[in-house]
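Sat 14:20. Reprocessing the chain from the morning session after the first attempt stalled halfway. Input below, unchanged.
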Amino acid sequence: MEVDPPSGSRRLFRIVLGLFLALWIFFALEIGLRTYKSLSYDGMLFLGPSANNVVSDRYGWISPSDRVYPKNDACYGQGVVTYNENGFRGPPLSEAEGAVVVVCLLGDSTLQAYQVPDGSHLGSTLRASLEKRFGNVFLLQLAVGGYGTTQEWMLYRDYCAPLEPDLVIHHWSDNDPSNNDYEAELYGHGSNMRRRPFWENGRVVYRKPFTLKPGTWLESLMLVKLANLALEPSAPSEAIHRAALERGWNVAEEMLKKIRAGGTPAIGLVASEHKRALELYRRRGYSVAIYEPFTEQETCLPRDPHPHTGGHAKMHDALWPVVERTLVKRKDTTWK
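Finished this time. Tokens:
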């Protein structure tokens, strides 16, 4: 028996049903990925693009402003994580007025410490030590996960320099050179999958170091990020890779030079294994505070390589004598 072809209305129904099912599957996969990412990486359920950063036209991305969320993690501890009105962990910028000492702390995810509750990360413990020693202190913690040295310098220029700080502290991460170069990011050596500023030919330019570029909103979807990982260009030759990283090192040096341009005392906080970074800081007139690399017991591996309170205590103990010595010397010469 012959079967009549479906009518126009029936065909339209099937198309609409197919689209609905496809969208439902897409939505379910996206929610599932966000749930997995937030629970396994952030240690909390958060279904937005990220609990720890939002899109920024100027910086690529930045920490969220005025966000407070609880932290209850067997490894990182219990408490709350707080961001001020500018998206930084610490007090409002208005509290810098009248401070006896102003200190700026620059870095990426290690110092942003979005896993570690207030009071337990380096910014908090260093502020407590400064207040005990010098009284009214303002510490500005300019640290955002995934940042390269260009972005850190941009935050310094926009937020720290206007405060005329007494001391600047810059933390070195081993992925800084790869975060500083478009080609190194493109071939997966940074893999932040975000539009970001790069320093090229003496100016800031914005590039998207990934293959699929459907627009800001779609690029924030986990499924699009996974697709970009899958479509990552083939790894370049070793020579091209080395050249890209070398450009990243050159950018790091240029940005550290810019941070020191005003003559403010500066300290490089760096793990002992990063010999080239130590030489770089010293060449650019930074004092150095050296700590031993984090052990597995000072991180939350295998879930997360970032340091917990023990790792932050290690950085504080290495940094504090250099900070105290530098500020005492500055107090003897010029003090606010």
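The first helix runs from residue 8 to 42.
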